[in-house]
Design brief:
By secondary structure, this protein is an all-alpha fold. Helix content is 74%, strand content 0%.
Length: 188
């Protein structure tokens, strides 16, 4: 949900308003998230497999994504080079949650793996579908006189995007309740 909200919906507008970037400049920074995903996804899968544990990557993902995203959103006037590095870092750290799909598969016998992965994917997509409209509602409530996106302020965006670090903190609090699979598929 955090990647969809920042990477696909509200990130470009946040950067345009907060940093005064043009659309192409803002889109370039946002694309760094996906560069980070391309690097982090296989790396954290390999780390998870080599540790024979899935939960450490989930802890890392939630904690480090929270830290990096909080810096992006709430540290004013970052140097543009550092901002690009932070967007890559957010992509890398947020991709560390992907072993959760392995957990969903490993907690269930083979004949239920398709159902388990389908449910996991649906829940993952649900976050991406629900969080962006919530950000939009918060934006409108904080500035009801804004006629379009250009009338929101940097403060409006920072107030509305607070939901992203909150979601990451909730994820961090939920990790202890996930069963560790030790990379073993459940039997009947």
């Amino acid at each position: 949900g955090t990647t969809a909200t920042l990477g696909a919906i509200w990130g470009v507008s946040f950067l345009r308003i907060t940093y005064g970037f043009s659309n192409p400049q803002a889109a370039g920074y946002i694309s760094m998230i996906f560069v980070g995903w391309a690097v982090g996804s296989p790396v954290f899968g390999l780390i998870s497999d080599s540790l024979r544990k899935r939960k450490p990557t989930l802890y890392l993902s939630a904690l480090l994504s929270f830290i990096v995203l909080s810096i992006i959103l709430y540290y004013p006037h970052l140097h543009h080079g550092l901002l690009a590095i932070l967007f890559i870092a957010f992509g890398v750290t947020s991709s560390a949650f992907l072993p959760a799909f392995s957990i969903a598969r490993e907690l269930h016998p083979a004949e239920y793996s398709g159902t388990a992965l389908g449910l996991m994917n649906m829940l993952n997509s649900l976050g991406g579908a629900l969080i962006p409209p919530i950000v939009g509602i918060i934006l409108e409530k904080n500035n009801p006189y804004a006629q379009d996106i250009l009338h929101y302020t940097a403060k409006n965006f920072k107030d509305a995007l607070i939901i992203l670090p909150i979601v990451l903190l909730v994820a961090l609090l939920l990790v202890p309740y996930i069963k560790e699979t030790h990379c073993k598929v459940a039997k009947h």
